Amino acid sequence: MKALCKIISSFLFCVFLLASCTKDGGNSIKPVEQLAQYLTGGNGNRVWHIGQVYENRMQQQLTASQMQYTKTYTEIGTQSCMGSFTDSDGYSGKWALTSVTQLVEVITNNAAGDIRTEWLINQLDAHTLDIESTNNGKTTRIVFYAF
Questions:
Q1: Terminus of the chain with fewer CB atoms < 10 Å: N or C?
Q2: Calpha distance 59→11 (Å, rounded)
Q3: What fold characterizes domain 30-146?
Q4: Domain residues of the chain, as ranges?
């Protein structure tokens, strides 16, 4: 009987140990929140520079202004999947990650009114933001790099 109790005790101890090792302590974040951290640099502003531009899958030569262009994404308060942005052309607005595949931007300081763009996210990590949008039959893809 003592041997059986030792076996059961050992088994329960192992189960408890394995169960405790699989918990993350509440530190895991949702995939869309991870993307928001990549986009904004986590606790600050992440500055992105254009590396490549494609129109209808054809790579375009960057203009001088595109080579100088930057866009900065910032989180707003505790809402990690939305925030504000500014760019080197003087535009600013709001952004939201509506899913792991979609970034929505609204330019809010355009004289003619707000401009909303829905971007398909091809890739977003700590160094690359690859997005595309189709408008009036034309697909524009922009690959940004963070330095």
A1: N
A2: 61
A3: Lipocalin (2.40.128)
A4: 30-146
